[in-house]
Amino acid sequence: MTDQNRIDRRFAKLRGEGRKALVTYIVAGDGGLQNTVPLMHKLVASGADVIELGVPFSDPMAEGPVIQRGHERALAGGASLRKCLALVDEFRQNDKDTPVILMGYANPIQRMGEQVFAEAAAEAGVDGALTVDLPAEEAGALNSFMAERNLRNIFLLTPTTTEERIGEITTLASGFVYYVSLKGVTGAGHLDLESVRDNLEHIRQFTDLPLCVGFGIKDGSSARSVSANGDGAVVGSVLVSAVGDAVDASAAEERVGEIVSEMRQALDQ
Amino acid sequence: MSKPGAIDFSTFPDASGHFGPYGGRFVSETLISALDELQAMYMSLKDDPDFVAAFDHDLAHYVGRPSPLYLAERLTEQAGGARIWLKREDLNHTGAHKVNNTVGQALLAKQSGKTRVIAETGAGQHGVATATVAARLGLSCTVYMGAADVKRQSPNVYRMKLLGAEVVPVESGSKTLKDAMNEAMRDWVTNVDNTFYIIGTVAGPHPYPQLVRDFNSIIGREARRQSLERFGQLPDALVACVGGGSNAIGLFHPFLNDTQVKMFGVEAGGKGLASGKHAAPLNDGIPGVLHGNRTYLMEDDDGQIIETHSVSAGLDYPGVGPEHAWLKDIGRVEYVTADDDEALDAFRRLTRTEGILPALESSHAVAYALKLAGSMSPEQNIVVNLSGRGDKDIFTVAAIDGIEV
Ligand SMILES: Cc1ncc(COP(=O)(O)O)c(C=O)c1O
């Protein structure tokens, strides 16, 4: 492995302190492009460890209605992959430590070119990418361009991933592994804690990478329960919904700050 | 037969679902195991004599195959060149080629033991064909349809409901076929344990482009045999409209190794290629990734999928099956366009000269065939895939004519 990057350092630090990671997802440009960077700083100030910045896409197939609308709002406000990279660059002027991951779909990256993307992402201060519709079989090229730039490749494991694939995917994965807690789209509500626990224990046998759990996490207590057997929790839909419902940018920041602080406290209990 | 060194088209896709650089599987991890299962089941059944016999039985006795190969004499006379033969998929049960595929996938669904089927639909023909086989097998059925299409294809919406299906209007994005497909994928991810997704065209993740093609290839196998019977040789040219590309590949595939047979796929030119308001990714798109496969797409500089336009809902789709993308690149099939006006002219012309009311989708193929025939000689033969009947479109055409029906 190459040098540590921000993701590795952050998880090592949390492990040392015996704490769980709080991974927070917002859609870049949702609520106005000029308000995204302040919102990212607010996430950090309220206790987020990792920022997952959603790259808006016209056809976000894995998202539930809440995040779909976030993508639509962001696109209507002029967001694009290039602008997401510019936002991260701006964020880095005042935050050199918090890991930022781009979460999105394959086509905008393909359009930019995988190598160009990896270089531009590294340049902007991005630390890794999770491309929802790029399963292990199709991820080879992007993965190696990312690795050349010391960027991490985050992969999803799900309740339907077979034993054989868990082995294959965890060999390709770096940074951390994102365990999808349920069969469904983002924001769904049928979390099965027992199956999450069993699956995390099973995945542990394959990898030493940190395991973060996402989908269906709504508040401090669900964050705390799902991460009991993992290394962190990912929260998205409740934050995107807060941004969507807010009357203006400062109301959005305030509400997002409250939600994240509550989760931070629950995780640190 | 194919010469040494020539491509043997029957060997594609490869084991991972690629046609050259196109196809593959671009879906979220949750669906991979369901696709693996489907692929394993399909590979074990596709040459199984009992499965093949069951499929052939349903095609003969439920769908009403073989469909005729009809010589359109007056149309030929008007075009003033090659003879125009119509492969009459409009005469199938439910009125389009779509049922060839749903009958096949219904057999797979039954075999899988799943109790619920879902589908996406544009014109509503695939939704009707899915609701039909679901009714016949007693499976519960949900069909996703863009809200804009629900409006312009209302007769089919009601047909689906009569057949017992739930029709869900999709309000996101452009409210057309692509958004219906997104929503169907989301349903499938959520209900993958009990749900079989019947995709309606040769798009989607592997193995769908392959199995939908194979089920529709009955069109080309029959047309090949019928051509030899009726005019003693293979056709000089094949013409079919291309939305996702299932009726076209169904006609073309059994002829791909016959290199002397020319093939034309007709995309929706909408208001003209220059206007940007069309649905012709093979003519004016670039390769990208959508709905589980790599193919030509209509997209902007940022890789966002853009809205398409066509008078026919069934062609109003920004992507196209990956096999067509590959056939374009290697030059085996020529992809052309017919615009809205040309399609409407052909719709009226075929209705008045032959007493056959074609679907607006199929009218695009007829429009191009009329031009092509004029440039060929009277002893040559063109086979046009008349993929569906036009009853569903009379409200659209009436509205264009300013008439209330
Ligand atoms: C009659 C008819 N023809 C053609 C199409 C286009 O689909 P494909 O390109 O998959 O044949 C449709 C789709 O709804 C249709 O109803």
UniProtKB/TrEMBL annotation, chain A:
<dbReference type="InterPro" id="IPR013785">
    <property type="entry name" value="Aldolase_TIM"/>
</dbReference>
<keyword id="KW-0822">Tryptophan biosynthesis</keyword>
<dbReference type="GO" id="GO:0004834">
    <property type="term" value="F:tryptophan synthase activity"/>
</dbReference>
<dbReference type="Pfam" id="PF00290">
    <property type="entry name" value="Trp_syntA"/>
</dbReference>
<keyword id="KW-0456">Lyase</keyword>
<dbReference type="InterPro" id="IPR011060">
    <property type="entry name" value="RibuloseP-bd_barrel"/>
</dbReference>
<comment type="pathway">
    <text>Amino-acid biosynthesis; L-tryptophan biosynthesis; L-tryptophan from chorismate: step 5/5.</text>
</comment>
<dbReference type="InterPro" id="IPR018204">
    <property type="entry name" value="Trp_synthase_alpha_AS"/>
</dbReference>
<feature type="active site" description="Proton acceptor">
    <location>
        <position position="52"/>
    </location>
</feature>
<feature type="active site" description="Proton acceptor">
    <location>
        <position position="63"/>
    </location>
</feature>
<comment type="similarity">
    <text>Belongs to the TrpA family.</text>
</comment>
<dbReference type="InterPro" id="IPR002028">
    <property type="entry name" value="Trp_synthase_suA"/>
</dbReference>
<keyword id="KW-0028">Amino-acid biosynthesis</keyword>
<keyword id="KW-0057">Aromatic amino acid biosynthesis</keyword>
<dbReference type="GO" id="GO:0005829">
    <property type="term" value="C:cytosol"/>
</dbReference>
<comment type="function">
    <text>The alpha subunit is responsible for the aldol cleavage of indoleglycerol phosphate to indole and glyceraldehyde 3-phosphate.</text>
</comment>
<comment type="subunit">
    <text>Tetramer of two alpha and two beta chains.</text>
</comment>
<protein>
    <recommendedName>
        <fullName>Tryptophan synthase alpha chain</fullName>
        <ecNumber>4.2.1.20</ecNumber>
    </recommendedName>
</protein>
